[in-house]
Amino acid sequence: MITKQFIIGGMSCAACSSAVEKVTRKLVSVTESSVNLTTGIMTITFDEQALSDEEIIRKVERAGFRAKLHIDKSKEEKKEEEAVMEDEVHKTRTHLIINIILAIPLLYISMGHMVPFPMPLPAVLDMHHSPLNFALAQLILTTVILFNGRKFYLAGFKSLFRGHPNMDSLVAIGTGSAYLYSLVMTFLIRTDGTAVHNLYYESAAIVVTLVMVGKYMEGRSKNKTKDAIRKLMELAPDTACVLRDGEQTEVPVEQVGRGELILIRPGDKVPLDGTITEGRTTVDESMLTGESIPVEKEAGSEVIGGSVNYQGAVTVEVTRVGADTTLARIVKMMEDAQGRKAPISKLADTVAGYFVPAVMCIAFVAAVVWALLGHDVAFVLTIFVSVLVIACPCALGLATPTAIMVGTGLGAGNGILIKSGEALEIAHKADAVVLDKTGTITEGKPAVMNIISHDKDEDLLLQIAASCEQASEHPLGRAIVDESKKRGLPLLKAEEFQSVTGQGIEAVIGGDTYYIGNRKLCESLGIGLGAYGKAAEAIASKGQTPMFVVQKPGRPEDGAEEASAPAGIISVADPVKETSRDAVARMKELGLQVYMLTGDNRLTAEYIGGKVGVDHVVAEVLPQDKANVVEKLQNEGRRVMMVGDGINDAPALVQADVGVAIGSGSDIAIDSGDMVLMKSDLNDVYKAIRLSNATIRNIKQNLFWAFFYNSCGIPLAAGALYAINGTLLNPVFAGLAMSLSSVTVVGNALRLRRLKL
């Protein structure tokens, strides 16, 4: 099975997207087909051996729509595509302006005599003096207006004849009927002067104009929902200063290869991901991570394409180019998220699939009933046109995708990348959150926590230990070296470095032999812990690792004197992130049960768990068993959100209802998660759940208004009020109500952008 995306053209409402889904799901080997109305993308899963891309495209085209394979485009291609879309919007605006200008005299001619105050017309256009001219003037104006709105007729009748009627079909049938009826009445004026009272040109013209206004505003609003992606794409510069053969050359970023050196000056944007090889600086990564404080960078530090270099000039070796860069992957994630449907949208799509045929039946039945009750053709036509025009499947189709698009954009602006609408919907239903310890609750990088020595200066003991460890690759040894550098202690020359497997290291400094390692090392050397024994136990109870520093005068080959006790202890641990305790407390406020999952021993795990305030600690878990722990919670009826950063967390992230990857973690974990926290801050889990809550609430509001408009509007248009008090809905107001329903739904979705997480 393979999943591909196709761009679908010619869709105007949810009935269209539903029709495409129906025809493609009937194809052989297709297991899933989902069409997003807002983005115009169909995501389809099928067997490539049994079905080809061409067959899928032909099937969609036979249903009356356009289709082509969705291919990842370059930045320039996307800009060109946007320019074409902008041109389309500009053409629509031009046609709309012409229609509005023509609609004013049309309304004046056709309805001026109905207002309470006098609105005089020249005799040549007056319905009493020149009824034929009165009708012909309206015919000419209406014909131009309908020609400008011909898109509705071309698409509407095409869909109708293909057996998939949509919103355009409703508008085309309704306004077309009014226009043709008025045309017949115009021909009858010569023989029957009363026919001039049965003209509905203004209804057809004004309804089309109002629908065009709604569509134009809807299109502009849709473009606003894509602002987050557009802004992200604009972050990276188009060119880079590459160092080739000792010369600086300005070249387009597409021509820069992996491994090349680029120069980034103060104030420049970083063009591509890379590692600093020379220089120091501070970099603003706020647009990508949401973190407002500039980050210190030096040789060996990674920089992200799209971030801004503040102070020093740095040389960077490019590590990722093209679609592999962090920025390109973020854009891809967001495009995928906005192209996928949330489960809640299936309700609206199912309704929309039956909606248009149902409305056409209601319009026909209502017209027949009123005709049988003895009403004239003009009355029956008003009922027929009003019912067709007021129905709005657009609002139903836009309710979910617009909110999802705005929600994912808001998340990205806060450093939370959401890969799918489904993840955004499920997140707020989670009642248990499982947190990996290392790299999620803790920093994921050991650091020196404390130094204890009864007879040596603290800095001297650290300097000696760091000097011995400078050749070591062990994470605990690197932590000691890093702490020494942080304190500005110069490293001494160490000789005869040796690693003692499972115990520690040995080295000679200034003629004396030093051993640095665990309790086993002291036991193998026959050294008692003395007064340091209790201190070591207290350190271990806090989840820290005691590293004993032992000094023996003389070199090993000289027969060094035995040391009676260690010279001191350096405790090393993976420190808890500053934000972890606060983040756990916030999760518990939301009613979540918080679990901490770790492979560490129970003593260390219980200490860390108690420090941050989790509800449950699951310790000594093997990497391959993490997914089993998540599955067990799911079997107990819990909706589980898993948060992790390592390769060993990937199976658990996939198993969970919602997998949340830490942005600083492994690529495999990031690919496995449904969400990515770019700031690597657990507080963003709380924000993601709040965002999920707000988005789903917004979707429900949108669906309510969409159903409310149709539930009230259709009976009103069918003549329900006429039966009670003689009030009949004019098709013009029906068209206005239909346009307003779409604009209301999209406008409500855009309100989400103001949410403060």
Automatic annotation (TrEMBL):
Reactions this protein catalyses: Cu(+)(in) + ATP + H2O = Cu(+)(out) + ADP + phosphate + H(+)
Listed InterPro entries: ATPase_P-typ_cyto_dom_N, ATPase_P-typ_P_site, ATPase_P-typ_TM_dom_sf, ATPase_P-typ_transduc_dom_A_sf, ATPase_P-type_domA, HAD-like_sf, HAD_sf, HMA_dom
UniProt-listed Gene3D superfamilies: 3.30.70.100, Calcium-transporting ATPase, cytoplasmic domain N, Calcium-transporting ATPase, cytoplasmic transduction domain A, HAD superfamily/HAD-like
Domain HMA residues, every copy: 2-68
MF-aspect GO terms: ATP binding; ATP hydrolysis activity; copper ion binding; P-type divalent copper transporter activity; P-type monovalent copper transporter activity
GO biological process: copper ion homeostasis
Alphabetical list of Pfam families matching this protein: E1-E2_ATPase (PF00122), HMA (PF00403), Hydrolase (PF00702)
Topology versus the membrane: Multi-pass membrane protein
A GO CC term attached to the entry: plasma membrane
EC class (word): translocase
Sequence intervals crossing the membrane: 96-119, 131-149, 170-189, 195-214, 351-373, 379-399, 703-724, 730-750
UniProt-annotated location(s): Cell membrane
E.C. code: 7.2.2.8
Keyword Membrane: yes
Entry keyword set: ATP-binding, Cell membrane, Copper, Copper transport, Ion transport, Membrane, Metal-binding, Nucleotide-binding, Translocase, Transmembrane, Transmembrane helix, Transport
Entry similarity comment: Belongs to the cation transport ATPase (P-type) (TC 3.A.3) family. Type IB subfamily.
Listed name of the protein: P-type Cu(+) transporter
Origin organism lineage: Bacteria, Bacillati, Bacillota, Clostridia, Lachnospirales
